[in-house]
Amino acid sequence: MNDHDDDAKFVEIGDEQVQQLRDLAGLSAQSAVLDVGCGYGRLAHALLRDPDFRGTYYGFDILPKHIEWCKQHLADHRFRFGHIDILNARYNPEGQRAPSSVRWPVRRRSVDVIMLASVFTHMWPEDITHYLRQCRRVLRPGGRGVATFFLLNDNWRQAAAEGRTGYPLPYQLNASTRYFREDDPLHVIAYEQHWVIEAVESARLRVEHVQLGRWAAGGGEAWQDLVVFHRQGREPPPRLDAYEARLSRPLAGQGADGT
Length: 259
Fold this sequence. Notes:
CATH architecture: 3-Layer(aba) Sandwich
Helix content: 25-40%
Number of helices: 7
Order of helices and strands: HEHEHEEHEEHEEEHEEH
Radius of gyration: 18 Å
CATH class: Alpha Beta
Strand order of the largest sheet: 3-2-1-4-5-11-10
Largest sheet: 7 strands, mixed
């Protein structure tokens, strides 16, 4: 079904993501789900197989072949997919839109649950902060997001000293950022846990839970670290601007470029 996983692995990872969203983000039968960097639709496939899920789903990705496959095999009136041609030095070096300039084609306060699996593990810090602001924009008050990271913390430092990490991170971008390959920094890029928490809070979100993954002997079931965040409180309904008024549904994304 995709470039790296066999069918069984594809199904297994999708089911794991659904369970993570249930356990950590309050996924319900009626949730509006946003899947950032949806790839070949592992999460969508799992939700479609779930007889109890009656909510909506919108996934977007920077690679058109992924989205075309999803549209052909997974899309229906509740499950939508969009391609946005976003620059990424590793995965889409010819992309036409800078990540920090992209406004997701999703209405404000229309999403209950956001999944960002293996997204921030391949992004520069300034682009992560922009994506977190987009999360805040589209989440309903009380809505949650689950993002995977490679976190640098005391647990990682001990595991690295003992040679028990999945990736050595010998290269340093700045005081908060390390990476695996000198010639390909976005292959595996990791951030200090305190920086991640500060970035989430600077987007006016709140970190709810951090679950350490197996990559640095953290003891969790997932390979990568999981950061759960939420948008707080009850707020008055939003006033739609001209851009959002063009979006006919809460999780719209009709154009070829996702707009």
